[in-house]
Structure formats: C-alpha cells, structure tokens
Input
Amino acid sequence: ARAFRDEVDVLRRLQQKRKQRQEQWEIDQQQREIRENAAIAAATQARDAFRNMAEEEQKVTQEEAARCCKEQADLLIRLAEEEHEQATKAYEAAQKRKDEVA
Output
C-alpha cells in the first residue's frame, strides 16, 4: 500500500509539473503575442508618420511651386505692362512726327 501511495504521489507531482509547464507555455505565448502586436502597432505608427511627413512635404513643395509660378506670372505681367507702355510712347512719338511732317 505504501508503494502504491508513493507511486500516486510521483504521478501527481509529474502531473502538476506538466500543468505548470503548460501554464508557463501559455503565459510565454501570450507575451509573444503581446510583443508581436506591439511591434506591428509601432511599425504601423512609423509608416503612418512617414506617410504624413511625405504628404506634408509634397504639399509644401506644391505650395512653393505655385508661389514661384505666381511670382513668374507677376514678373511677366509687369514686363508686358512696361513693354506696352514703351510701345505706346513710341506710337505717340511716331504720331507726333507724322503730324509735324504733314
């Protein structure tokens, strides 16, 4: 009877150790999943931050390009106005000479 009780105790201890190992494996698995999810979340945040930064940079570049185009257009308008003014003066001078000759 004593040998039987000893054998039952050994089996209970083995069963308890197996249960502890199974619980530890489950805890380890949960921790791995948590770390994996955290890594995925961090990668997603980094990707989104990079995308936002790229979009902002593109927006700034487009705004700079638009500003440069507007400045060029303003310069061309001023140049055209000056040329028009000079052409008008030349025409008026030619008219005046024509009237003096006639």
